[in-house]
Design goal:
- The protein is α+β, with helices and mostly antiparallel strands and 169 residues long.
- It has two helices and seven strands; from the N terminus they run ββαβββββα.
- The protein is 32% helix and 27% strand.
- The structure holds zinc ion.
- It holds the Pfam family DUF6907.
Amino acid sequence: MTHSATTATAPSTHESAGTPRTWSFTSSVTGEQVAITCMPGCTIDHTRDAETPSHPVDIYCWIGESDDVTLPIDTTGTPEEFRVLSSRIEVHPFARALSHRLPFAVVEVVDEHWIGGLDPDGLEMVINTLAERLDALRRTHADLVRARADYAAEQVLSALRQNKAEVTA
Ligand SMILES: [Zn+2]
């Protein structure tokens, strides 16, 4: 990967955001100029791709979300902030895998752990799986609220029982 989310910027041309950019790069394989039209909405800055010879398979466009969300996740005994559930759309116009020459989704489940190459059906499957897990989390939330209330009530009852035992002793 030659780009990260932090280097992706809005199109720097005079064209409006919705207009696909057309540009060209030098193929490091043939030495020839190759014209490319960006996926509509592509937010990658292709300046470096255009300026230095590139292998065609390394050229890709993406539409990314910049609203990263992190949660404190514990993998070492000390919780650290890890990015969760970010997603983007990529297309690799010269990919060796034909399926990557059409836009596909990439989901980062948690920092650097990806589900890639998702077509709309695949992405829907991921969304449905996560929606089921969210339902399970909501059930756990309800159970937790109930467990805390029961626990607090039991503490009070147990204290009352102990007081009564001391009084009658
Ligand atoms: Zn692009």
